[in-house]
Amino acid sequence: MDLKNKLLVVVNPISGGAVKDELIQEIAELLNDRQVAFTIYETTGEKDEYHIRELLEAQSIQKILVIGGDGTIQTVAKAVDKRDVALGLIPAGSANGLVSNFEFSTNVANQIDIALGDSYILMDMISVNDHLCLHIADLGINATLIKNYENSEIRGKLGYALQTIPTLMESDLPYSFSLTFNDQTIHLQGVMVAIANAKQFGTGAVINPKGKMDDGVFEVLIFKKLMLVDILKTLNEDSYRNPDFVECFPVTKVTIACQPEVALQVDGEFIGKVQKVSAELLSSKLKIMVPAQSKEIQERFNL
Hints:
By secondary structure, this protein is of the alpha+beta class. Helix content is 27%, strand content 33%. The protein contains nine helices and 16 strands. The chain has helices at 21-33, 48-58, 70-80, 108-116, 141-150, 156-162, 164-170, 228-233, 295-301, and strands at residues 7-11, 38-42, 63-68, 86-91, 120-123, 126-128, 131-133, 136-140, 175-181, 184-190, 192-196, 218-223, 246-251, 253-266, 269-281, 286-289. The strands form two sheets. Strands 6, 7, 8, 9, 10, 11, 12, 13, 14 and 15 form a ten-stranded antiparallel beta sheet that branches. Strands 2-1-3-4-16-5 form a six-stranded mixed beta sheet, with helices on both faces. Helix 3 links the parallel strand 3 (63-68) and strand 4 (86-91). Helix 5 (141-150) packs across helix 7 (164-170).
C-alpha cells in the first residue's frame, strides 16, 4: 500500500436517513482489494470542516472520497479551500442533486474506480449570500418545498412529492423579482428564480439544459408560470423550453431583489426568507472526479 498518499474517506453516517455501516464495510473491502491506503472520517455536524482540514494537513492527501449527499460534499468543499485535492463522490443522500448531473454508475465498485481514476473537471463554484453553492440555488416555490420537506419526517423523493400540495397552498404566487446583471435591471413576476451551476435537480428535472459546471459562468433562470406541460418537459433534457415558461441568462454576477420576502435554498438546504440575494462566481475551482466518458467530458473535449 502507498502510505504516503492516503485516500481520505469522509462519510456522513446519517445522510439520506440510512445507516451506512454496511456501505462503509463494502467500501473498505474494495479499497483494500485495490491496495489503497485510506483513513475514514465520519461527520458529526460539529467542526467537521476543521477536523477534515487537520487530516489534510497531517497527511499527504491527494483525493477525498465523499460518501453522502449535497450537504456532505459542501462541507468537504469548504474544508478543501483552494488545496489541490480531488473529490470522488459516492451518492448516499436524499436526492444527490450534484451527482445526478454526471453519468455515475450505481455500482459502488465502479464509483470507486471513477474516484481513483484520472478523469476530472475543475468545477465552478458560486457564492450566494455568502453561502457556497456548487449545484443550484433558487428563490421561490422550490425553496418553500425544501423548507417543508426539512420539517417533514419522510425522506427521499417520496418526501418531496408529499410536500407538493401543502407548498402550493402555502405559496402566494406569483412573486415579484428585480434582477440586476450585465449592466441591466429587469422587473418581472414568476414562481421561481434559479441560480444554476448544474443542469438538473436530484429529482431528475432538467431546469438548465445548456448548463456546464466548468464553463466560467452560471445561469439565472426565471420561471414565470406553473405550466404542467412545460414542467413535464424538464424530464427531457433536449425538449424545447417555452419562453413563456422560463427565460435563461448566463452571468458571472447577479443581484436579485424580491418584495415581500421569498424563501431561499442553496444546494438543497433551506436558508430562510430573504429580500435580496447577491450571487457571484468564485475565482477558485473544485476538482471533481468524473466518468471518463460522461457528457461533461464529451462536450468539453468534443469526444
